[in-house]
Amino acid sequence: MDGRRDVGGGRRRRFVNAPEAVPPTGAEPGLLCYPRPVATGGALLEETPPLELYARGATTPLAPVEVDERAARQSLRDQIARLESELASLFCSTYPRQGFDWAVASRGGPRVLGLSELERVRDQLLVRLDQNRRLLSEQTQVEQDNRCLIEEMMLEPARYKWQRVGNSDIGEPGCKHWHVTPRWGVLGMLMNWWRVKISSGCPLAGGRSHTLRPRPHR
Predict the structure, then answer these.
(1) Cα pseudo-dihedral 165, 171, 172, 176, rounded to 10
(2) What is the pLDDT of residues 16-43, one digit of tens each?
(3) Do 163 and 153 contact (CB within 8 A), yes or no?
(4) Is 97:139 a contact under the CB 8 Å cutoff?
(5) What are the residue ranges spanned by the domains of the chain?
(6) Number of Cα atoms under 13 Å in the Cβ half of residue 132
(7) What percentage of the chain carries pLDDT values higher than 90?
(8) Mean pLDDT taken over the chain
(9) How far apart are CA 50 and CA 16, in angstroms?
(10) 3-state SS of the chain?
(11) Could you give the CA distance from residue 178 to residue 163 in angstroms, rounded to a whole number?
């Protein structure tokens, strides 16, 4: 520690010299360990800027840290597997509805993907899962409204003249439909007699008709 006289007031100001570097016990040659900077009275120089401390030699430069990518890759693979499982479950729950996109872009064939590529695949799965969930929620609301419409048609068919609702409108397979038609044709239209006609389902597939031919006499 050295003292210098102040020009203005004649008082002496004390400065702390930087501590000398001391090699730690059992350390490799050339490796120095600097103690924490201490001011007068044992107080640490916590408020000293880091660059100034480093310039004085009061700090030890940090050694480069090697990042292990195996844990990050395993975490991304687990996330991708979970998202694929949720997407598969959503696909099963949407059947037989149409209009969903389940495709996810491939990454250029079978190979080991890097961290950035794994993150890209995870993000694409998240986007696809969110889009299909929102679309399924919207279609489910429309299907519920159509079920309520069928109930109202059955109660008051005259309010829903010529209205037609099919199984595809309520998210069910098959060709069944509900159709509001007049009773007895033109007379029912004149008398305002309406009814809900329910179809019996999909028509049977017709095959070739096999006619029996008489066997030729021998």
Answers:
(1) 10
(2) 454 454 455 554 554 444 445 444 444 4
(3) yes
(4) yes
(5) 1-64, 69-106+113-198
(6) 25
(7) 33
(8) 75
(9) 16
(10) CEEEECCCCCCEEEECCCCCCECCCCCCCCCCECCCCECHHHCECCCCCHHHHHHHCCCCCCCCCCCCHHHHHHHHHHHHHHHHHHHHHHHHHHCCCCCCCCCCCCCCCCCCCCHHHHHHHHHHHHHHHHHHHHHHHHHHHHHHHHHHHHHHHHHCHHHCCCCEEEHHHHCCCCCCEEEEEECCCHHHHHHCCEEEEECCCCCCCCCCCCCCCCCCCC
(11) 8
Contacts for 135 with CB less than 8 Å, ≥ 6 apart: 99, 100
Phi then psi for 56, rounded to 5 degrees?
A: -75, -15
Assigned token pair, 88: 């598969």
Beta bridge partners of residue 166, listed in sequence order? 177
User: Over the chain (218 residues), what is each successive 10-residue block's mean pLDDT?
Assistant: 48 48 50 48 53 59 69 91 92 86 77 86 92 92 93 92 90 88 86 87 59 58
Residues in the chain: 218
Q: Which two tokens stand for residue 31?
A: 């490796």
164: number of Cβ within 10 Å = 15
Q: Does the reported pTM lie above 0.70?
A: no
Token pair recorded at residue 158 = 């005259």
Q: What number of other Cβ atoms are within 10 A of residue 80's Cβ?
A: 19
